[in-house]
Amino acid sequence: MPSRSHAAERYLDLLTGCLTRELFLDEEARNIDLNIWIDEVGGSTGIHGTGIHGVEELRDVLRANNWRIVHRGGDRAIRQAGHDWPPTAETMVGKARLDNARDLATRAVLDDIPGDLIETGVWRGGVTILFRGVLDAYADTNRKVWVADSFEGLPVPNADLYPADEGFDLSAIEALKIGVDAVKANFERYGLLDDQVQFLPGWFSDTLPTAPIDELAVLRLDGDLYESTMDAITALEPKVSPGGYVIVDDYGAFEPCRKAVDEYRETNDITDPITTVDWTGVWWQKS
To answer: What's the whole-model pTM score?
Structure first.
């Protein structure tokens, strides 16, 4: 069995740090509320002694000069745990889950487990970019990375058909609606957009049952809801090769996701032990 290459792992270390922006947290800029900022640094003499008083006057100055108020620097512990939605990073899953995806993808390549790699629910594409980076680092030119997402955010829950999803409506969150062109641009940023990357745009129920995927070495589920998780695992888990890996991002965070996974495993007599990654992520190896 081939061993891990020091040069390949150093490249993947750097790629991981870029995808999470952990390497650049001191440069990360966040907009801050002008009212709070004025309360903190203003006063009777005006903001920083400029003579500017009040929110509207400050806004006029900012607009006139194309300025904005920002706070620099993120919280490393929060980013590593995946407890924030980064302003620019390509992934929100945090370091532990990203390292897990990288490790299992690397194992699949080095152990020659047959099949491609897929994530269902990709946001800005960070995990799938890392999957492609693993293939590049270990010169695997045969496998594909499948990028499956609606690229329109999450669906409105159908509580009549899927009662477990009632009360989990995330469909209006604009931050989750990342278009396919934006995700492709993120791959291009790292020089990793090529014909080994295949996109499956649309709702999982429409795209996954007929996707031209023969075998999978790694299946990573990140659908949040019961419906999305069940659609993905039902269509794709049977294609995971023996020795391959199933990863679930939201098992600990979202009860509907956990319910779908548990029901599928029970229905299909899957007893492979579940391994915990962090506060929400889990995985198992298919026997």
So the answer is: 0.86
